[in-house]
Amino acid sequence: MSEKGMFGVSGSGDTSGFGGLVNSTVVTGSTQRPFGAYFDQVADDLERAYPLFSDAIEKVIVDRGELTLFVKRDRLFEVAKILRNELRFEMCVGVNGVHYPNETGRELHAIYSLLSITRNQRIRLEVCVSDQDPHIPSLVEVWAGTNWHERETYDMFGIIFDNHPGLTRIMMPDDWPGHPQRKDYPLGGIEIEYKGATIPAPSERRSYR
Amino acid sequence: MTTFTDPYASSQETTEGRVYSVTGGDWDALVTEIGATKEERVVVNMGPQHPSTHGVLRLILELEGETITETRCGIGYLHTGIEKNTEYRNWTQGVTFVTRMDYLSPIFNETAYCLGVEKLLGITNDITERATVLRVMMMEFNRISSHMVALGTGALELGALSPMIFAFREREKVLDIFELASGLRMNMAYVRPGGVAQDLPHGALSKIKQTVKDLRRNFKDNEKLLVGNSIWIKRTQGVGYLDLAGCTTLGVTGPVLRSTGLAWDLRKAQPYCGYEDYQFDIPTTDTCDVYGRFLIRMQELEQSLRIIEQCVAKLEKLEGQPVMVADKKIAWPSQLSVGADGMGNSLDHIREIMGESMEALIHHFKLVTEGFRVPAGQVYTAIESPRGELGVNLVSDGGTRPYRVHFRDPSFNNLQSTAAMCEGGQISDVVAAVASIDPVMGGVDR
After folding, report:
1. Quick check: A144 contacting B, CB < 8 Å?
2. Overall domain count for chain A
3. Nearest 5°: phi and psi at A153?
4. Does the beta carbon of B268 lie under 8 angstroms from any beta carbon of chain A?
5. pLDDT for B34-73, tens place per residue?
6. A21:B380 CB<8 A
7. How many angstroms from the chain centroid is the CA of residue B343?
8. What value does the mean pLDDT take over residues B85-114?
9. B273 and B239 share one domain
10. Closest-CA residue in chain B for A141?
11. Residues of A in Cβ contact (< 8 Å) with B445
């Protein structure tokens, strides 16, 4: 192993250098019915309003009192429309991306948090796509408010939302290379120069690795 | 013909036609040049350095005369990469980062984040009542200080100076309470996973009671300055219109949503931190305009004071209860106290870990440097911040650091409604509309 950076420690995410912590990734299977709380009601309503339910929903996860529906990318737009118009999930409060570089073929996840004021309920949609083909249909037509959230997710993760009215970077400068929230994008990454001395980028300092 | 020597301010051919950039200078030459063309579309760039755009917000306005035909927002000037940074620090250190996002409501950022971490840990029900009541009290004080800035700067941007002076005077009183409780006036990192950083110092409750009394009296001054003020009414009534359908499709929450007549407040609708045990009302108006949002903020001040009074009564009963979870594998080990040279670790605690118990030292060291592990999973927690729904998406992979921290900041979302509120109006109304959204760019850009 070649040393680099200031102290040359790499591997575990341990700041002290003693613990040797290894992160455990938990792959959760699909939750079986009954889901509990109001989740069965939501699932029933969706199944009734959307006959292709079993084809569109890859799996359902109920964890820590929250319902997540994993939706196939091709069906996302239809499911979202039904959820808004039939099930009265009036608001999509946000879109969040997560990068799982170890999940081959499903590296990029987009997570939509939905809120229904009528039902006073929340659910979550999750869509997984691969690094090679990071396309997801845009939901701006369903909830106009996802516009900026999708732009942010594009900016930070490089997920391309098809049919978005103006998918440009929103946080980073327009000509910025790379997508900063991906796991393979280092923290900082830019060396700081000050009065002739060069300070390594944060990603090269031991305590940040 | 070259009008300017400034390389950034000249005319150039684009796909949209010939574009002239104006940054001051030789106006006569410019007028002559523009006079040759027929189109009179003017694009005004307002901000990011502009006193009335509420921080580093850039508005790109397309005008026909004084009327706005198109509005676009440019954001990102205050992007600090806080979400990325938290992935490289342990869960407790995350509090210090997130408190700096929306810098006018730090306690809300901290609480939303900590509620998320606690949900991941599965210790939501183990948080002591005293810690929860302290959180609620600090949040409501924070709501007051945040609304004070919203009202003060909002009035300032519309040309009224005195309300700003009055509002900031009240805000100082609230910041004094923050300093008393946490040692810091802003960005306190007071709420921690498992509880709060420290208990109130001796005699704090009587100071809080006095402050509540002063605030209630002084809020009347602010009311007198603006509520019936005819200039204020003319500048704000019927301006920045956004109805319920617009709010829901744009995901707008907070005072803007409540100004459409819908009493949607997460404290009532989906209570957290024991809000179901407090008596308070949700002020609404049905005017959908800037004036309605202003009235709502004014009335929310009084409701916050009501909640604080109930918190004080509860805290008196809960005297002596711990403010951190009992689980020593999660509770932050340091015991803070105020010394002659400021705040730091208490001498008793130092004596114990340095002189008496090696295990205590190891425990302290491990927990502070490495942090605690959080079971893998993902959660979404939402609370009602002064600006609307503040949501936190947390993903853990089972390690001592967050795998992903995402803040759904209400300012970020609500700022999308600028175009809907402004288009068709006048330039001067843009200022009023943006002020009524009350965006905080630290939260928008994170």
Report:
1. yes
2. 1
3. -65, -35
4. no
5. 666 666 678 888 878 777 777 788 888 888 878 899 898 8
6. no
7. 26
8. 91
9. yes
10. B249
11. 171
Cβ of residue B380 closer than 8 Å to a chain A Cβ: yes
Strand partners, B396: B377
- Considering the domain architecture, whether residues B313 and B351 belong to the same structural domain is answered as no
Interface test mutation site (partner A, options B70, B72, B250, max chain A beta carbons within 10 A) = B250
**What's the CATH number where A122 sits?**
3.30.460.80
Q: Are residues B23 and B62 in the same domain?
A: yes
For A157, the domain range is 39-178
* Chain B residues whose beta carbon lies within 8 Å of the beta carbon of residue A111: 378, 393
Task: Give pLDDT, residue B368.
Answer: 83
Residues B149-169 pLDDT 10s: 998 888 888 888 888 888 999
Residue B80 lies in a domain: no
* CB proximity under 8 Å: A 112-131 to B: 113, 115, 117, 120, 122, 124
Is residue B419 located within the same domain as residue B356? no
Q: Are residues B57 and B117 in the same domain?
A: no
Q: B181-213 burial string, b = 16+ CB within 10 Å, else e?
A: bbbbbebbbbbbbbbbbbbbeeeebeebeebbe
ipTM of the complex: 0.85
Are A13 and B119 an interchain contact pair (Cβ–Cβ within 8 Å)?
no
Mean of the pLDDT values across residues B221-250? 88
Q: Is residue A27 part of a domain?
A: no
Q: What is the pLDDT of residue A1?
A: 39
Restricting to B residues 382-401, those with a Cβ less than 8 Å away from any Cβ of A are: 382, 389, 391, 393, 395, 397-401
Q: A115 falls in which pLDDT band (50, 70, 90)?
A: very high
Query: Are residues B183 and B283 both part of a single domain?
Result: yes
Asked if residue B79 belongs to a domain, the reply is: no
pLDDT of residue A123: 92
Tokens representing A89 are: 């999930």
User: Given this model, what pLDDT does residue B373 score?
Assistant: 85
pLDDT of the residue at A191: 65
Which pTM value belongs to this model?
0.87
Same domain, B62 and B160: no
Chain A interface includes B6 (CB < 8 A): no
